[in-house]
Amino acid sequence: MNKHAVVLLISLILGLVEAGLAVPLILRRIKPNSMYGLPGARAYDSSRVWYRANSYFGKLLVGAGIASAIATALFWASKPHMATRFLGAIELGILLVPFAVALALARLSLRKY
Questions:
Q1: Full-prediction pTM beyond 0.70?
Q2: What end-to-end distance do the CA atoms of the chain give, in Å?
Q3: How far is the C-alpha of 71 from the C-alpha of 80, rounded, in Å?
Q4: Considering only CA atoms, which of 52, 64, 33, 26 is closest in space to residue 109?
Q5: Which of 31, 61, 82, 109 has the fewest Cβ atoms within 10 Å of its own Cβ atom?
Q6: pLDDT digits (tens, 9 = 90+) for 74-97
Q7: Total structural domains in the chain?
């Protein structure tokens, strides 16, 4: 397997792992903590806020993870011979932009709780 395929495969897997790690948040299985879930002092105001905000954040993360995986697959199909040095930066963006959007939307949603 060449470097190009390895970078794309890792990015595809990371997108799916992101979606998978969000499932316990959606199911409200994660107790309030500072390591796993939506960061921010407002999320810790009460258990009710924690679980609602993190359930929403989890749903957004599933979407972000799936979007990253799909974008990686589409990118892989459309640019199979791109130079590896550019590929890493593009794939990093494909992973981070959906995550950042999910985080921003979840943080904004805290205002309504």
A1: yes
A2: 49
A3: 13
A4: 52
A5: 31
A6: 988 887 777 777 888 898 999 999
A7: 1
